Amino acid sequence: MASFFPTALENLIDKFAMLPGIGKKSAQRLAFFVLGLPEGEAESFADAIIAARATVHTCVVCQNLTDAEICPICASEKRDRSQICVVAEPRDVASIERGREYNGLYHVLHGVLSPLSHIGPDDLRISELVSRVSAGGVEEVIMALNPDTEGETTSMYISRLIKPFGVKVTRLAYGIPVGSNLEFADDATLQRALEGRVEM
Amino acid sequence: MASFFPTALENLIDKFAMLPGIGKKSAQRLAFFVLGLPEGEAESFADAIIAARATVHTCVVCQNLTDAEICPICASEKRDRSQICVVAEPRDVASIERGREYNGLYHVLHGVLSPLSHIGPDDLRISELVSRVSAGGVEEVIMALNPDTEGETTSMYISRLIKPFGVKVTRLAYGIPVGSNLEFADDATLQRALEGRVEM
After folding, report:
1. Alpha carbon of B185: minimum distance to chain A alpha carbons (Å)
2. Quick count: other Cβ atoms within 10 Å of Cβ A145?
3. Are residues B94 and B36 in the same domain?
4. Which of A115, A54, A21, A8 minimizes the C-alpha distance to B9?
């Protein structure tokens, strides 16, 4: 397709179109929006990209994203060091922290095992988790991965690796989402909710 | 809401969330994607923003976006200078050019009249259009704005301004989209298609 926009604009559209979930039309809209930003705003957008890439890296302990060497959660003296909650992505830490219930530590895998996408144990931060558990002081590891095939496979794999260290391994409860309606629950969820029924 | 991400990452998320149609969750996903880009790719994204802002401006004649003083279409000797197609946005020029049918010039208003959004004639590139028409040599002005209230109001307003110069003013045909199905056409479109029926 021939280009009907100036080169620099086409280039910016291409950059936006490279982002996940952004098609060519959306990319155009975003690029036009950026062109129309007040003086300095576009520059500060560009700076934000550079700054994020330059200062954000993974915590040497839990592998969560941080701008310090050790992230605030791992560094906090108020957190329970006997619990490690294992999540797939940094955003999952944010989700659980928002609940303000959990007070242990985290471990971020940066993905899940996925043979189809050629993601094996060495592509995830699994050995770092094993090191933490083997170092002692950990009583429970809570697997908080997605309740799908890849998440469950990954949970099983990690569970088998760390149980020999005498640690208790648990997973999140599956069931009907709070506030939702039985009518809209899929069969698998309903089945899981039945299996996991608790006495009242 | 407390922040669970490093400051630079929160800042980048905020920048993405400022874009039209991008919510907080999508902004997070985009920011994580940018963090995970190969070395140099994030920098080239940032550079693309800066470059687009620095080099892209409006053509002094048709007000379309360009990186030259006069855009390639206005500068081309192959285009018919007696026709001006009036569109609301630069992307509309791209849409019409893709059809490879139209060979006249364009005029980009950069919006439409919208009393509700406080957009009046002085906020659009209307006086520039009047100057072009009054300079002579223009035989037909084709209004190609959206077939909605604002588009039609703008077309009527401009039509009344430029007709005194003895120019023919037309608008795009309204009707059933090619390849679509009568069943799915809304009442207004169907009504317009009936009104605009042509002899076979």
Report:
1. 23
2. 22
3. no
4. A54
Contact list in A for residue B9 (CB cut-off 8 A) is 52, 56, 65, 67
CATH of the domain at A113: 3.40.1360.10
Cα gap B133→B90, rounded to integer Å: 20
Distance CA B120, CA B154 (A): 10
Give the minimum alpha-carbon distance from B117 to chain A in angstroms, rounded to a whole number: 17
A167 shares a domain with A145: yes
Q: Going by DSSP bridges, is the β-strand pair A80-87/A104-108 parallel, antiparallel, or unpaired?
A: parallel
Tell me the per-residue pLDDT of A29-62, one tens digit each, with 9 for 90 and over: 999 999 989 879 999 999 999 999 999 999 999 9
Measured CA to CA, the distance from residue B175 to residue B189 in angstroms comes to 6
Same domain for A125 and A72 = yes
Per the domain annotation, does B2 fall within a domain? no
Beta bridge partners of B80: B104
**Using CB atoms, which residue from B9, B18, B26 is nearest to A56?**
B9
DSSP string, A6-48: -HHHHHHHHHHHTSTT--HHHHHHHHHHHHTSPTTHHHHHHHH
User: Cβ–Cβ of A42/B53 closer than 8 Å?
Assistant: yes
Query: Max Cα separation, chain A?
Result: 67
User: Interface pTM (ipTM) of the complex?
Assistant: 0.73
Claim to verify: residue B16 and residue B69 sit in the same structural domain: no
Q: Full-prediction pTM beyond 0.80?
A: no
